[in-house]
Design brief:
Two copies of one chain form a homodimer. By secondary structure, the first copy, chain A, is α/β, with parallel strands linked by helices. Chain A is built from 15 helices and 17 strands. In chain A, the strands form four sheets. In chain A, strands 2-1-3-8-7-6 form a six-stranded mixed β-sheet, with helices on both faces. Chain A has a five-stranded mixed β-sheet with strand order 14-13-15-16-17, with helices on both faces. The longest helix of chain A is centred in the middle third of the chain and has 19 residues, at 159-177. At the A-B interface, helix 1, helix 2, strand 2, helix 3 and helix 8 of A face helix 1, helix 2, strand 2, helix 3 and helix 6 of B.
C-alpha cells in the first residue's frame, strides 16, 4: 500500500476507567477514524492509568519511538486523579506556568455566567512552559507543544471536548505540517459461505501482486469481510484501483460468494432483490423467536417487501398460525425437515407472500438429544417453484445459534433470489 | 478501595483494523472488565498494527516492564496479515514448531464436517517452541508460554473465540498463579427510568460515606447501570458489604427503579415474573419488526411463558392476524392509541395468552409527519384487568428508536407484573 507522504503518529489514552473496563475507549476509535480520513495513520496506541509515573514513562518511551506526531487524551481535568499535565512537565523537565491570558478568559467566562470562581477552574490555565493553550467554545483543558520538532497534542478525555479540539486544532495543524495530496479509500466486501482460511489462500497470490493495495481479513460472526485499502493521488484513481481489485477478488472467491460491499449487509441485499422482483416476503420463526424478522425490518423501507411474520414458538402456534399438521409434529418432532417445509408452505399460503422463510431448531442450552443435539436447525425457503430445506448444525451458546440460524436463512433466500 | 496483593499485567492488542478505526477495541474493554472481576488489574494496554517488527518491539518492551502477566489478542488467524505468532518467535528467539497433536485434532474436526483440509488451517497448530496450545470448542488459534516466570497468553482477535479462551484458560490460570485472599465483588444494579445525572446526585453523599467501595455510573442505551465494587477479606464479607450498599442505593433511588442486578436484564426479570404467575405472553409488533419477541426469546426457557408472536408490519396484517378494524386504522392511522390498544387486545384474545404487548410506531427515517414525527411510538399492555397504552417520542436513528421501543414495552410489562 502506498504510504508515501502519510505521516504516522501515536495515540496515548490516559485513565483508570479504561484499564478497569468501566468504559470502552471510544475516544481511541474516534481519533483513529478521523486521522485516517485526514490521510494520517497511527503506528500504535498506548493506554495507561491515572498514575503520574506511568504517564511520564509512557511519554518518555513514545518520545524515542520515531513518531511524527503524538496525541494524548485524558487526565487533564480539574480533579485530583488528573495527572497528565504534571506528568508531561516531569517527563520533559519543564516547569508548570500559569497562562495569564487564558486564566483571564476563564474568569470572564465564569463571571459572565454568574458562577463562583474556583481554584480548580484555574488549573485549566496551568501548562508546561512553552506549551500553547488549545481553546474551545467552552472552558476546557488542552494544549500543544513541540518536542524535537514533533507536535504533541494534549486533549481532554471528555468525548465532546476531545472531538471539538481534534477537529478545530489537531487535524488542521497536522494538515499544515504534513501536506499531502494522497487520497485514501476503504472498501469492504462481504463474503458468504467461504471460510477465512480459504479466502486467505485464494487471495494470497493477489496480495503479493498488488503491494500498493492492502487486503485485509476481518472475520465477522456469520460472514467474512475482505477489506481493500487503496491510497492514490486522486479520488478517481483510488476508485478505479479499488474497482479493479474488487473485480479480481470477486473472481478469485467465486461469483456468488460476495453478497455486498461496505454497508450492504445481507438484509439490505436481500431487500433490494425482493424490491426489484416486486416480491413480498413472510417469515415463520421458531427457535430464532423474531430475530430473522428483526434483521429484515432493521432496513429502512422494508415495508415495501415485508408484510408480516409469525413467531410460532409452541407446537400449538405452529398448528394454529401455519397449519402444520399435528401428525407431522408427532411423527417427526418440531425440529425436522417436514415441519420446516410445512412451516414455510403454511406461512406462504396464509399470507399470499411470494417467498417464505421458516426456521425451526434447538437453540439450547437444553432440549438436545443424541439424534438432534443443541444447534440442530432446519431452514426452509418456499417460493412458487417449491421448497428448499437445509439442515444445519451450529455451535456456540444459545445466542450464537440463533444468530447463525437467522443469518443462514437470509443467505438461503439470497441464493434463491439469484 | 483495597488493592493489596492484586496482580497487575498488561494487554497487547494487535490489528491494523484498530489503528485504522475500522472497529472499536471491544476486546480490550471485555478483557479489562473480566480481569477486574477476577481480582486482577492492568498496568496498561498497547495496540500495534499487523507489522511483525512493531509487534516484536512491543513484546520486547513489555518483557522488561515488570508486569506479572501479559495477554495478547489478535493477529493469530490463518491469513497473511496475521503476524503475531511469527513476531513472538522472533522477539523471544524461538523456532516455530508444529503441534502434531492439535493438527491431528484439526484434521479430525475438518474430516468430521466433510470439509477440505487446507494448509492454512494447519497454521493454527504452529506455535513457538515450548508454548502450550490453548484449545476451545471449535478450531481456533491461541497458545500460552512463560518468559522469565511471567505467563504470556496469546488469544485470537475474533471476539467469541477470545472470550471463550479468556474464560476457560486465562482467568483460571491467573487464579492458580496468583492466589489471593482478597475477594473482589462487582455488582451491577439495573435502573429503569431514572436519568444518570439524577442517579449521580442521589448517590453523591453515599459515595463520600463509603470510601472502601467504588460506586460507578455506567449509562447504557435504554437503562442506567450503577456499579458497586467491593474488595474484602472473604467472600462472605464482600457479599455482606455489597448487600448493605445495594440496599442503600435502592432506597436512595426509590423502590421500583431497580429492575435487576448483574445479568438479570429486563427480559430475564420479566420472564421470571411471568413464570411465577404461570402466565403466557404474546406480542404484536409493528415498527419493531420482531425485536421485542427476539429479546424475550433470547432467554433460555422462554417457551415456559412465550407461546407466539405476531409481526404485523402492514395494515393488512394487523387486520388479518389481530382483528384490528379497518375503520380504526383509517380514522386514527396505524400509529395511534386506538390501534395500539386494538393490537394488544387482538393478540391476547387470538392466542388465549394472559398478557399481550403491542408496539406500533414510526421508526423512520421517513414516514414522519408534523403531528406524528419519526420516533412516535405507542405501546400497549393488555391483561385480564384491561389495557394500558403509553405514547413515547424516541430520538435517534431507526435502530435506536426500535431498541428504545422494545425496551419500553418490556419496562411497561415489568411494571404491570409488579
Amino acid at each position: 500500500m502506498k504510504e508515501l507522504e502519510q505521516a504516522a503518529g501515536r495515540l496515548i489514552t490516559i485513565g483508570d476507567e479504561l484499564l478497569l473496563g468501566d468504559i470502552p475507549d471510544g475516544n481511541a476509535h474516534h481519533i483513529a477514524l478521523e486521522l485516517r480520513s485526514g490521510g494520517f495513520r497511527l503506528n500504535g496506541m498506548v493506554t495507561v492509568g491515572d498514575d503520574e509515573e506511568a504517564i511520564a514513562k509512557a511519554f518518555q518511551d513514545v518520545s524515542s519511538s520515531g513518531d511524527r506526531f503524538v496525541i494524548v487524551t485524558g487526565g487533564l481535568g480539574p480533579t485530583a486523579d488528573d495527572r497528565t499535565t504534571d506528568a508531561a512537565a516531569k517527563a520533559f523537565g519543564l516547569p508548570l506556568v500559569q497562562n495569564a491570558e487564558y486564566e483571564q478568559w476563564l474568569r470572564d467566562w465564569v463571571d459572565g455566567r454568574g458562577c463562583a470562581w474556583s481554584e480548580r477552574t484555574a488549573r485549566m490555565a496551568r501548562l508546561p512552559e512553552g506549551a500553547a493553550k488549545l481553546t474551545g467554545e467552552e472552558p476546557m483543558a488542552g494544549f500543544m507543544m513541540e518536542r524535537q520538532g514533533v507536535p504533541w497534542y494534549f486533549l481532554p478525555g471528555v468525548p465532546h471536548e476531545m472531538r471539538e479540539l481534534l477537529a478545530s486544532h489537531v487535524i488542521p495543524d497536522l494538515k499544515r505540517r504534513f501536506p499531502s495530496s494522497v487520497v485514501y479509500l476503504k472498501r469492504i466486501l462481504r463474503v458468504q459461505g467461504v471460510a477465512e482460511s480459504l479466502i486467505g489462500s485464494r487471495l494470497e497470490e493477489l496480495e503479493r501482486k498488488v503491494p500498493d493495495v492492502r487486503i485485509s481479513y476481518l472475520p465477522q460472526p456469520n460472514e467474512n469481510w475482505v477489506g481493500i485499502f487503496v491510497a492514490a493521488n486522486s479520488r478517481e484513481e483510488a476508485e478505479n484501483r479499488a474497482a479493479e481489485i474488487e473485480k479480481e477478488v470477486v473472481a478469485l472467491l467465486g461469483y456468488g460468494c460476495v453478497s455486498g460491499r461496505d454497508d450492504e449487509n445481507l438484509e439490505t441485499t436481500v431487500g433490494g432483490r425482493l424490491r426489484r422482483k416486486g416480491w413480498k416476503l413472510v417469515v415463520a420463526e421458531s427457535c430464532t423467536g423474531g430475530l430473522l424478522a428483526r434483521r429484515i425490518t432493521s432496513v429502512a423501507g422494508a415495508s415495501d417487501y415485508f408484510d408480516r411474520g409469525f413467531i410460532t414458538y409452541s407446537n400449538g402456534a405452529k398448528m394454529d398460525l401455519l397449519g402444520v399438521e399435528g401428525e407431522v409434529l408427532l411423527a417427526h418432532g418440531a425440529v425436522s425437515f417436514p415441519v420446516a417445509e410445512a412451516m414455510a408452505r403454511g406461512a406462504r399460503t396464509r399470507s399470499r407472500a411470494d417467498a417464505a422463510l421458516a426456521i425451526t431448531g434447538i437453540a439450547g442450552p437444553s432440549g438436545g438429544t443424541p439424534e438432534k443435539p443443541v444447534g440442530t436447525v432446519f431452514i426452509a425457503c418456499a417460493t412458487s417453484e417449491g421448497v428448499t430445506v437445509e439442515k444445519h448444525l451450529f455451535a456456540g451458546p444459545r445466542e450464537r445459534i440463533q444468530e447463525s440460524s437467522a443469518h443462514a436463512a437470509l443467505a438461503l433466500l439470497w441464493r434463491t433470489l439469484h
